[in-house]
Design a protein that fits this description.
48% helix; alpha/beta; five-stranded parallel sheet
Length: 218
């Protein structure tokens, strides 16, 4: 029996995946979390076999969640289930320990296949749409290679920028100094090859770091 926990903030997706998994004879959803911090605590308490993690969580980045889970229990398998498809985000998730990565597209058979491949075969499973777009290791974005992907902290900051947070509010939210925030933002500008917030948010949206619906540049 594969014991699973899902960390996902969208209720309909949580419900659909949970229902599908609990209908399988060899799977059981033992825990459900709506935020990253809640998910990390739940995984620590329940020690499941597989965790389904969304990248775009409301409190912390899914990349940071994966990093914390793997630091606490390295043998737990992580399957990312996300609408974020940029190669930078995929690589960030893999760098901190994600085992497999699939896109949100209401494809239950694909989700089940990813879980079984990751757990039973101990192999990574990648959504065919990611592989089809040649996202891994070679493609360049504006002449920049994969090692220029945003860090977990930079991803949090760009998300808060998209929500309209000032540098001061970002610093308060992340419990860091305002000068540290400015330093991270300068690195974000360099990696995205832009010079200001507006273009940083536009570029981040194009690359899948932030959802278009949350983009606020005015």
């Amino acid at each position: 029996m594969i014991r699973l926990v899902i960390i996902e903030d969208e209720e309909l997706i949580r419900l659909g995946i949970t229902t599908a998994i609990n209908q399988q004879p060899d799977m059981q959803m033992v825990g459900i979390a709506r935020t990253g911090n809640e998910g990390v605590k739940l995984v620590e308490e329940l020690t499941p076999d597989v965790v389904l993690v969304d990248i775009g969580l409301p409190d912390v980045s899914g990349v940071e969640v994966i990093k914390q889970i793997k630091a606490n229990t390295s043998n737990i398998k992580i399957v990312v289930l996300s609408s974020h498809y940029s190669q930078s985000i995929v690589q960030s998730a893999l760098n901190v320990g994600a085992d497999s990565y699939i896109l949100k597209k209401n494809n239950v058979p694909l989700i089940l296949e990813a879980i079984k491949t990751t757990f039973y075969d101990s192999k990574s499973f990648f959504d065919p749409d990611i592989s089809r777009h040649n996202f891994f290791f070679q493609q360049k974005i504006k002449g920049k290679t994969y090692q220029d992907h945003l860090s977990a902290t930079e991803m949090q900051i760009i998300s808060l920028m998209a929500a309209g947070f000032s540098n001061k509010l970002i610093a308060e939210q992340l419990f860091i100094t305002e000068s540290t925030v400015k330093g991270h933002i300068n690195k974000i500008f360099a990696k995205l090859d832009v010079r200001d917030r507006v273009n940083a948010l536009i570029e981040a949206s194009k690359l899948g770091y932030i959802e278009q619906d949350y983009l606020k540049v005015g």
